[in-house]
Amino acid sequence: MTLTKLPVGERPLSRPPLREHPGHGAARVSGSNRRHTCHPAGRALLLLTLAGGIACASCSELQTEQKTARQQAKQQWNDVRGKIKYQIAAESFSRGQLDVAQQQLDEVLAIAPNLPEAGVLQARILLERGEVASARTALQSAIMNGANGPETDYLTGVIAQRYGQFDDALLAYRRAAERDPRNAHYVAAVAETLVALDAPAEALALIESRWTDFEHNATLRGTAGQIYLLLGQYEKAADAYRDAVRIAPEDKTFKAQLGLALSLAGRNTETIAVLEPLCAEGARSGETPGYLLTALGRAYLETDRCDEAKSTLRTATQVSPESLSAWSWLARAALTCGDLGTAYEAALKAAELGKGAPEPLILLGYICIRQGNGPAAVRALEEALEKQPGDAMTLYLLSQARRTKAPKALAPAGSARSEARG
Prior knowledge:
This protein is an all-alpha fold. It has 20 helices and no strands. Helix 2 (98-111) runs antiparallel to helix 3 (116-128) and helix 9 runs antiparallel to helix 10 (234-247).
């Protein structure tokens, strides 16, 4: 067999030339048995690339975690600072320094805006300022931030009460009292709301059932005194307020209410003992309310101290110029002192304020009779008789007035003292 020589460099077609892989020399690859091989340096590079990607991902996650941790640490620190500043603001509020408390609270909210107790304090400040709508918004935000205590229920009740929603207020106050049964203010709030809902007997029963629990609490004694006054039980009201004054001797409100209850109970000597120093102190500061001056003047009059009565009641009309009671008692005091001119003027003002009420008209008619002013007395008494037909006293005075023909000139102040006592 003769072999055909191929030109140099050529190879038979049945044997394709071997492919040389860079760096691997003449490694053979045939058909389905082909194998891919990798240089150690490439393998290392691949591993480094993968490792780098994983490292970068881990690094990013670590940075995110570190950033989150820093933010949490900063917020925790701000919360600590906020709570410290909140305590300072709360103390200012308890001292009645509303503007200072608000400034301090603004600092709290700047660093810890979601602090629940700060939102509650904001609501309390706004309520003290009478900004009820803003207080409700602040309280709702505080509740969303986690405020959930008896004080939250109590403030919810206060806001509902300000809007006249007494049923809702009662529910909120009862929740507060149930969650903190040792807080007398919550029990008092329930009782006061029951009174507003025209259930004073239920309110009084509630307080009396907790009397022993709050044996040394002045607030509940004061609330009981209010209800007793409303029910016309003046002796019991005086006893309740006396207990309140004993427990809280510096509280001027309780002293004032005690004096009023004593006056209504007819205990005039005790009324003077309580109200005289209180009104004297108020006179120096110009803060004595007119109703206390009226009660004191009435007590003076009932104990035959008519000059002091007239002077005190005149002051009462100056402090409370729209007080029917003050003008009526001034008319009586002036009449007792024989000052018919002052008595007439005061009775005329009382009749005007009374807007047709029979009592001041009868008083005016009687004073007109004492002045000898029959026609004016008849007019006043006939108008009174229209309001209460058949009243024996009014009919008797009217008969006296009709016998008084010619009016006398109004007597100057103090000139008819002996006539008035006759």
